[in-house]
Task: structure prediction
Amino acid sequence: MLKGIAASSGITIAKAYKLETPEVKIEKKTGCDPAAEFARFKNALKKCKEDIQKIKDAAVGRLSDEELAIFDAHLMVAEDPAMESEVQNMCENEKVNCDYALDTVANNYISMFESLDDEYMRERAADIRDVTRRIKYHILGIDIADLSLINEESIVVAHDLTPSDTAQLNKQYTKGFATEVGGRTSHSAIMARSLEIPAVVGIEHVMSEVKHGDLLILDAIKGELLINPDQATVAEYQKKADAYREEVEALKVLKDAKSCTTDGHEVLLVANIGTPNDVDGVIANGGEGVGLYRTEFLYMNAQALPTEEEQFEAYKKVLEAMNPKPVVVRTLDIGGDKKLPYLPIDPEMNPFLGYRAIRLCLDRKDIFRTQLRALIRASAFGKLEIMFPMIATLGEFREARKVFEEEKAKLIAEGVKVGDDIEVGMMVEIPAAAVLADQFAKEADFFSIGTNDLIQYSMAADRMSEKVAYLYQPFNPSILKLIKMTIDGAHKEGKWCGMCGEMAGEPDAISVLMGLGLDEFSMSATSILRARKVANSVCYEDMKKLADKALQCCTAEEVLDLIHETVK
Ligand code: PEP
Ligand code: MG
Result:
């Protein structure tokens, strides 16, 4: 049994599907038969094209047109006549093996494209690398794993899954995933929760311990992976999985209930979403709104910066579907572990502390203004609230708000209908902002605490690192104090304070956060009903006392013990 971090709840039993991209060593052979070598190459090329077409066909309906365009770019590389004739010439003139010829030809193209200034052209180098690797695998008879081609129930085992890998997982067959890297708040973990796929991340050695086809039990409640268990264990976990499913089913009676304590204190339980399609899950799980729409996925799943019109359509879809419930949209939070292939950012030693989020948007106002215009136009279709990520100083907030006001005034002057009460708030995810919350609250309309980052910055512990995961302590009294400062700062100025970090959806955290006075809890849609059950079962006055005591504790363990003693 291997241990990791439970990232998306559930229990699942299925065969392992290993996602491997083995490095191939190409050796030069001479004296080969040119005709036979070229035939071998053509055969592999044909298989490669068939693969790409199959992957594309399997993705139609699940991916947007822009995402599908990746496969067209790959087909173009595979169908390039120049590359084919260069391989043929090399086989004929030098009598070398075709994999060596292909490797040489492809490497020439890759270095040429990589040396160009144009980012789009540099991206083509990645396409060539991808496609030629596939052809080489076919020449050498190496099995190729492809997530979108999975056609039987599987647990995907990988070193890592990028957010776009996760987006390509077919929910029908992907019953879970287990990765070597990542933490609870890595973006693949967040995606797994929004797709409702059980996931355990940060499992050391999972790639060397698990073989393709092994029977696996993934316990994503405890964070465990069992390899080739015996029959009795399988039966035991089958029961656990059934019980978990029944529990989830039973929670559905709370779908339309209020999120209200036994003594009448109401809070708002809302959802985090990544794409407009996630809205269905929010409604199905009784979400009272959207507390965080991470707009960066709109940018990450595209080949170029999304236009104002494309963004407008996406935002409008969410606002209309949720209307009249509130939708908090976060402006672009790119950087850190979220990169855009078409927007190069100079390498940095510490990308999480670098050029990202609002810092990038204030530097690239063209990108920022386009997004704000799309948002302001969409505000006519629902209850829009906008927030800026990674605000560290009042100066940044003022500058961002000024750009918003300018674009709003321009649109009004152009005769565009805009919502008349768009709130403009900020995320509190940098300790400096939490400490100065009372000042920020004079100017921001609301706060949303981003604990995923607030904890990593306060504890100086990378949220992606499994090695320092022990320091990632939501219940550390220092974090509770920062949260209290933020909430009190907001309330002093009559503003509301929410939380959209993963902590907001943790059943153990809800009681203490409620006691601290948090007004809005934003979480994965699938966590809402369980959170409502907690909210409905506690007494607000008691939670206030619990929170006071928690603030006096010295360690996270003490806080957790206190919560477990108080909230049964
Ligand atoms: C956070 O930092 O808590 C947050 C919600 O933002 P993200 O996870 O997207 O960084
Ligand atoms: Mg963040």
